[in-house]
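BUG: 3D viewer hangs when loading the predicted structure for this chain

Environment: internal workstation, default settings.
Expected: structure renders.
Actual: progress bar stalls at 90%.

Input used:
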Amino acid sequence: MAEICPVCGLPGELCMCEEIAREQQSVRISIDSRRYGKTVTVIEGIDENDIDIDDLAKQLKTRCAAGGTAKDGRIELQGEHRKKVRAVLEDMGFQTEVR
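Structure tokens produced before the viewer hung:
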């Protein structure tokens, strides 16, 4: 028997909750400078209740070939990856804003 989504009430394979949540969020991508002149790409504005932020961070780290972490509702990637992150997130259906 198929699982029923508790939010929309549709079967699991027909559920559109995560895709709708992606379209409604505005994700901000910015650069931060850390100790010793290291650059970090910061992705903010992702609602942890709707999107699995740890899985998204894992996908971004893989696509950018960089280390990073997901904490406090932010994803931090080592290095300058604004263009690549923006392209990946827009392919996933997010609305992005680069600062």
